[in-house]
Amino acid sequence: MDIAEVLRKNGYKVTPQRLAVFGTIDHNPNHPNAEDIYKTLQPRYPSMSLATVYKTMEIFAKIGVVQVLQCEEDAHRYDFNTHPHAHIRCVRCNRVVDVDMDRDVLSKLAAEQTGFKVNTVSISFTGVCTECQKKEQ
Amino acid sequence: MDIAEVLRKNGYKVTPQRLAVFGTIDHNPNHPNAEDIYKTLQPRYPSMSLATVYKTMEIFAKIGVVQVLQCEEDAHRYDFNTHPHAHIRCVRCNRVVDVDMDRDVLSKLAAEQTGFKVNTVSISFTGVCTECQKKEQ
DNA sequence: TTTTATGCAAACCGTTTGCAGGACA
DNA sequence: TGTCCTGCAAACGGTTTGCATAAAA
Fold first, then answer.
1. Of these four, A86, B21, B51, B129, which has the most CB atoms within 10 Å of its CB?
2. Does the beta-carbon distance from B116 to A124 stay under 8 Å?
3. Strand ranges, E, within chain B
4. Is A109's CB within 8 Å of B128's CB?
């Protein structure tokens, strides 16, 4: 997917900042938050502001380029993987890892129980990752 | 369960404020947030501060009297139902409803996929409740 | 009497907003 | 050229904190 094209198609201008932000999240498995992205870009784009990161991510979320995560912590994280899936966060090192999970079954169950028309499903786990488990022994 | 006893057992003092806060959440199906609790108590306890509500809820969460929820919105909500279960929030009226759900299967799946030792599971849905569905027709 | 809790106000932190100057198309 | 974007700084909203006073044990 060409991000420049996607931006143009949705009526947004292509700017160096937007390309740079996309560069940091594209196939980035670390699920960074706005601050992470900002700090990553700081050396190469010292004039870029945190507000621009936020505004860019809002657009990216709107046009379906990223997914916004709430992993039981204060700051939002962004995931380039927009395919529906769950997340697990390590309470020791704060690493966040993707988890494949069929959510249709859960949606159906919730709909049956409550009568709601279900829009979104969010599944998130916390735990201790393999590396931190080793360190603790 | 006698809240006064639970507080004492855990080394906390029993105060009118704590009893009053507990009174608003005990068997309250509305999953209120701190502001809601504060406003509910305002008429009867005009001197009670929002800070006290927060401090009280922190204790209640610590001693297992309430569960803290993140329902894909800004403010936390509190649930007197501490039995593991999921939640669904109506995006129109913001009502939050409990959903029974077996989370052991999901935990096991996540553990198998990632190697994590799973601590917590959070499942939350958004959608449109039956009443708001009717209104929209 | 000792210890803990309250209420106030200020601080905090992630995020959003308004706006003047600057860049894209 | 017209429109949109950027960067700054200030505002915002939910939450936390420090501290003097007050209440519980």
1. B21
2. no
3. 67-69, 77-79, 86-90, 96-99, 117-128
4. no
